[in-house]
Amino acid sequence: MKTIILSVNAGSSSVKVSAYSAERGASPTQLAECQVNGLTALPPILDYSRDGKPVIKGQKVDGKAVNQRDAFSILLKTLIEDDELPQVGGKDDIGIICHRIVHGGDYTKPQLITEDTYYHLEELNDLAPLHNANSLGIVQACIRDLPEARNVACFDSHFHSTIPPHIRTYPINPEIARSNKLRKYGFHGISYAFITRESASLLGKRPDEVNLIALHLGSGASACAIKGGKSWDTSMGLTPLAGLPGATRSGSVDPSLVFHYASDVGKLSPASTKELHISRAEEILNKESGWKALTGTTNFGTIAASDEPAMRLAFDLFVDRICGFVGSYYVSLQGRVDALVFAGGIGEKSGRLRRAVVEQLECLGFGLDGETNRKKLEGVVEDISRANVKHKVLVCATDEQFEMARACAEDDEFWP
Fold first, then answer.
1. Per UniProt, where does substrate bind (predicted)?
2. Residue 156 catalytic?
3. Most CB contacts within 10 A, which of 26, 228, 348, 352?
């Protein structure tokens, strides 16, 4: 039995959709991929590729897309109206739609979206204010416009359900923590699941045999200690704000900092809605901090290419915070580390950042081959280590859409 699986990845300023041909229990095959970027900086831009080849590149969508739901409608129309993609000739051809949901609370595996599941996820919106509400808006549109398809929620948090109690627990009143579900959850888990499987394959091991320190570095950035193929610790916490700084996020700061920053931090932000309540503090730390605050740009490529003092400060700060987590996780894994893995847009593309990080970590036995590090990544995962080093250094082209489609294809529960 074959069907079409759509993988939907809604970010704070973009929506990406990948279409796969899938058979029950088998690895899916990608047919096409399209995305709308720039939802917060009009006009948005549409890109579309089929069979790995560009079909539409950098096409302005004339301001029609103003939110994630609008963007999804444009992407669905692009797929269906492509005469060269007969497998997706209409809405009825789509059997499964898997949605990246950042915060899944206590869910430990992907879930078929029912009325009860949807209500539970809605209650988690405030814990991931840049993502969950946007994703659920697309879920609503799919339930309404593609009634024959089965919707599946794939969570960024569920990979981290294996983090042990002494690491995931905050030192606060336990009763309040339990009743309000206050603990470390962790995110980017769909990416880390992909990274674990692909890195293990390159190392010639089973996924449950590898110990990794993985870095998902993009506009949102995190680190993860992976022990025996399972999450042992990660830098993000109750929400995606904790840990490493990002394009607009502060990362971990002194909790009292925000009260010294502004006097109205406890009040609701003007950006709050009836579905989503964002305090001024959350707005400052999630949307007005990070590289944007330090440099005026959210483009890390611009930052890495400049020696201007503000850019250099942001670059050095990011390297320092990354190395701090790697060092901590190295000790937590007792030095039993198969590889340090760079992934995400920055991890994959910035050779300068990889070099700066690994140079600082040479004392732990990591080493980089300079020539290999400068080359463009060609495979899914590549070894960029220097010869005869104690621990490998890898680069992985992570693929969250594929990981979601694979999970759905292999689980009988999601098939009609």
1. 100
2. yes
3. 348
